Amino acid sequence: MAVSKLIQITDLHLGEGPQSVLAGTSSAESYIMLNQLLKDYDKQAVWLPGNHDNAELMEQHLTDYPSYPVSELGNWGILTLDSSQPGTPVGHISDEELRRVDDRLNQLAGKSILVTMHHCPIALGCQWLDKQRVNNPNSLYDLLASHNDVKLVVTGHVHQQYDGLWGDLPLYTTPSSCIQFKQHSKDFAISDQPPGYRWFDLGSNGTVRTGVEFIRNFDQHPDTDNAGY
Ligand SMILES: [Fe+2]
User: Fold this and answer.
1) I need a labelling partner for 54 at 20 to 30 A (CA). Which of 61, 89, 92, 180 fits?
2) Which residue has the higher pLDDT, 220 or 172?
3) Alpha-carbon distance 157 to 31, whole Å?
4) How many Å from the N-terminal Cα to the C-terminal Cα in the chain?
5) Are 156 and 118 in contact (CB under 8 A)?
6) Based on the number of CB atoms within 10 Å of its own CB, is 170 exposed (0-12), middle (13-18) or buried (19 or more)?
7) How close is the Cα of 176 to the center of ligand 1, in Å?
8) In what order do the strands lie in the sheet with 70-73?
């Protein structure tokens, strides 16, 4: 069985240059730097905006990585969704986005489908962060669950690992490539885990293997007394 390999890198919070530490400026410079990094590693990439991003600037400056809401990887279709809204960290799926998702799911008929968006649709047990989850998840859930080919949903934003279910759909969230949030914390809290990412082995028969890795021997430590970011 053929296996397609995919890595999810999320919540980059890049600053304006390689020396920046936890900046998340959403500036042209940060996207130009990201474009160059991706080029240096010579990988194919698809991206979607998060709540800190300026999607227009991303489109403009990720010059070698045009935005593809639908892409194909072996026998798989990758569908990216925009769950961000301007001016708030809370996720939302607009009616327009919902209609686009329906069209794109039909476009990918016959493929196994991985759906990905920035915000998590369910509560993970961090009260402060759970308030920022997608605030209207039900219509999206019904739509995704009605397509048998949707195999999993993958998100970021929560800066922590979760492997579980959204109703009947397998749901995975992923640590940030920057700082991590403390799991099961009522109020904002940072953990001292290093940057992480998630890997997927997507089998041509629709099977999924996935796991999270943290960077080893990372010598920077976040200020875990911080009350915000
Ligand atoms: Fe986020």
Assistant:
1) 180
2) 172
3) 18
4) 44
5) yes
6) middle
7) 9
8) 70-73, 76-80, 112-117, 150-155, 169-173, 162-166
> Which residue's structure tokens are 């200020």?
223
DSSP-based three-state secondary structure for 168: coil
What pLDDT was estimated at residue 20?
77
157 CA to centre of ligand 1 in angstroms:
4
Average pLDDT, rounded, for the chain:
93
39: helix, strand or coil: helix
Q: How far is CA 189 from the centre of its chain?
A: 20
Between the CA of 31 and the centroid of ligand 1 the distance, in Å, is 16
Domain boundaries 3-214, CATH class:
alpha beta
Q: CB-based burial of residue 5 (10 Å sphere; 0-12 exposed, 13-18 middle, 19+ buried)?
A: exposed
Continuous segment of H or E residues that includes residue 73: strand 70-73
Beta bridge partners of 172: 154, 163
CA of 206 to the centre of ligand 1 (A): 29
**Rounded CA gap, 36 and 131, in Å?**
35
On the question of pLDDT at 117 being above 70, the answer is yes
Pairing of strands 169-173, 150-155: parallel
Gap between the Cα atoms of 53 and 85, Å rounded: 10
Amino acid present at 51: N
Angle, helices 95-107/137-145, rounded to nearest 10 degrees: 10
Q: What is the pLDDT of residue 24?
A: 65
Q: CA 226 to CA 169: how far, in whole Å?
A: 35
C-alpha span between 190 and 225 (Å, rounded):
8
pTM higher than the cut 0.70: yes
